[in-house]
From TrEMBL:
EC number: 3.4.24.-
Signal peptide positions on this chain: 1-21
Listed InterPro entries: MetalloPept_cat_dom_sf (IPR024079), Peptidase_M12A (IPR001506), Peptidase_Metallo (IPR006026)
Broad class of enzyme this protein falls into: hydrolase
Cofactor: how and how many bound: Binds 1 zinc ion per subunit.
Protein name: Metalloendopeptidase
Superkingdom of origin organism: Eukaryota
Keyword line: Hydrolase, Metal-binding, Metalloprotease, Protease, Signal, Zinc
């Protein structure tokens, strides 16, 4: 599997060997309402810092307001539990990790919300300045920053965030769990620079493909017509969702495992971002966006199901990145 941390700029990544049903050639280079998700890139890949006697990596989060908490908290708690279940329980020597998710709880005299009088919190609020802002995004997409971002000197909090669509609760807490994976430092498995060895990306099936092609030609007639599918910056310029599949090699510094983790919660299923989503299924893949090769010879493509829990590789990464460093 593959891990990266990001931007409002660039990223780096760590990977561990994973189990694959067959050996592919190794390569070590350097969620609409349907569950599609988007990471927000920042400059550096870093672990969340340790604190306290047990050196725990505490990720504190706050909601914008009471209404946001009421809409998102039930699903967020389930998503956190999904991770704890796969990690073997909360942080402890027995579970082998030192990761803690903590909803901010304010003293009686303070507000617990990320927004204070309509503005992002300041240090005086008591909310940690590196807390994750959790707010609602009703645009049928989930968006998150990736990994820990160093203090940028801003007078307000909000450099870490999760924008979550309450309607994705229909799909299940796994959508939020995917986003938590980004917050921990994981990026999409299908954005490996060597992904062509493992999966087939059908860009023409991505929602908005034809409209984006038209706009691209009208605005930049000399531009390579395929660049909306192959160039991250071009796809990003037009807001085309193919950018969620294109390896952003100008920003990603990658240390990928020699095998592809088809079970990672960070891997999109076949119908994510599909224009004709309902026409994509295991029995009919013509309109799917992402399919997996069943062998290195690339003789047959297969439907990718939704991974709703972290894989062994995801867990291995977290336990390596946030290993238990506390008391025996």
């Amino acid at each position: 599997m593959k891990f990266q941390l990001l931007l409002r700029a660039g990223s780096a990544l760590v990977a561990l060997p994973l189990v694959s049903p067959f050996s592919f050639p190794s390569s070590f280079t350097s969620t609409p309402i349907d569950g599609s998700t988007t990471p927000i890139y920042r400059d550096a890949r870093q672990r969340w810092p340790r604190q306290g006697e047990d050196k725990l990596a505490v990720i504190t989060y706050c909601y914008d307001d009471h209404a946001t908490q009421a809409r998102l908290a039930p699903v967020m708690r389930k998503a956190i539990q999904i991770w704890y279940d796969e990690l073997g329980g909360p942080a402890s020597k027995a579970s082998g990790h030192g990761l803690v998710f903590k909803e901010y709880g304010a003293p009686a005299s303070k507000s617990p919300w990320c927004l204070q009088n309509g503005k992002l919190w300041t240090a005086e609020s008591g909310i940690p300045m590196d807390a994750v802002r959790v707010h609602a995004n009703d645009r049928a997409k989930a968006v998150s920053t990736v990994g820990y971002i160093e203090d940028d000197g801003a007078e307000t909090g909000g450099r870490h965030e999760m924008r979550l669509d309450p309607h994705t609760a229909v799909e299940g807490a796994w959508v939020f769990a995917h986003e938590l994976g980004h917050v921990l430092g994981l990026l999409h498995e299908h954005q490996r620079v060597d992904r062509e060895n493992y999966v087939n990306f059908k860009c023409a099936n991505v929602q908005g493909f034809h409209e984006t092609q038209t706009v691209s030609f009208e605005q930049n007639p000399s531009e390579d017509a395929n660049s909306i599918c192959t160039n991250y910056s071009v796809a990003q310029r037009y807001g085309f969702d193919a950018m969620q599949y294109i390896p952003e090699d100008n920003h990603f510094q990658t240390d990928a495992s020699p095998t592809f983790d088809f079970n990672s919660i960070m891997l999109y299923d076949s119908k994510t971002f599909a224009e004709l989503r309902e026409s994509c299924n295991a029995g009919s893949t013509d309109y799917c966006v992402l399919l997996k090769w069943t062998s290195p010879a690339k003789e047959r493509l297969e439907y990718i199901d939704t991974n709703k829990v972290p894989s062994e590789g995801d867990v291995e990464f977290v336990k390596s990145f946030y290993n238990w460093q506390g008391r025996d």
